[in-house]
Structure formats: C-alpha cells, structure tokens
Prior knowledge:
alpha+beta; tt1808, chain A; 2 domains; 6-stranded mixed beta sheet; 11 strands; globular; endonuclease; Uma2 family endonuclease; endonuclease activity
Amino acid sequence: MVLLNDLANRITLDDPEERRVLSRVSWAQYEALLADLGDSSAYRVHFLDGVLEILAPSRNHESGKTRIGDLLLIYFLETDTEYFPMGSTTLKKPEKKAGGEPDESYCIGTDKEFPDLAIEVIVTSGSINRLELYRRLGVREVWFWQKNRLSLYHQREENPDQFAETAGYEAIQQSEVLPDLDLELLTSCLQNPNPLAAAKAFRQGLQTQG
Length: 210
C-alpha cells in the first residue's frame, strides 16, 4: 500500500482526471492526509469503511461543478430562496466511518451542520459508493451530473429496505429539496456549451415562469 505521507507527492495532475484508491486505511490516517493536504487542496477526498479515494478533478469536472453552482445561485436569487452554500466542505462522521467532499452542497432554509443537498459531477467512475457515503453523512438529497444528464436521489429513512440497492435513496424525477426548480430548464441550460448564454437563458426562463 502506498504510504499516506508520500501520497500527496506521488499524485500528479498529468492525467485529465486522476484517481487513487487505497484500502485498509484507518480513520487516523485519513485525518492525517486531510491535514497534510490542507484547506486549499485541489483534490477531493472520500473515505468509507477503510477505503480512501482521492480525485484530482479534470477541467471538465470543475467546469461542470462551477456551472451548476452558478445556475443554482441564479435560481436562489430569482426565487428568493434562503440557502447556505457549503461548497466542497469536508463532511465527516467518524462513528459512521464516513467522510467526503461533494463538488457542491447546500443547506436550504436554515443553516445546518450537514447539507440538505450534495451534488457530484461524475467524469470517471470511482470505487466508493457515493449514495452509501452520503446516507451515513445524513444528506437528504444527492444529485449526479453525468454525461450531460442529471440523476436525483432522495433519502427514504422510513423505508430503507425498499431501496437497499441505492443505499436507502429513491431515484426521483423532481427535487424534493427544491420542489419548484424546473429540472428540464436547468438541464437544457447546463447542456449549452456557452456558460454566459446558458446563465442568461436560465434567468430568462425563471423570470418567464415567475
């Protein structure tokens, strides 16, 4: 196994999206790596049951994350929705052996320790089950942006067995955290290759709906 204290030096950004996965990692080693990488780290680090995954995001990854965040900011402003952005804040529950850093995350309505919504941009598949990770972290809703499509999942604490294959989350067609958000409008604007045109079209669409 690669020694964690050497890991930061051995990962490079030469690959468009580089991923490292280590097994049999202790929680103390995970915490030590986070401290070594620091708050300004360009990496996303996830931990679940002793498996550590480190991602060096590609430009496409970061572009997708930023564009989703930009459009959601427009939505919050246009609809006067109370929101508290948490970005890629490191979320940790040592008692659950879970820690992660979403691409974007938000508390809606009131500020909380853990977000109501986590968003992941998927460019390359990883080894850690993101839904299981976010279930343990208590995130109510998770969005995945992959291949120019949004997939939404909402936690069903009252009936987890029914959705065991998706870690207690149900695939949904409409957000329950942001029930008034037009996902077709959001998706079509995210698919627009011009970020400025997409933002203008999204704002205009929201104003038309209002």
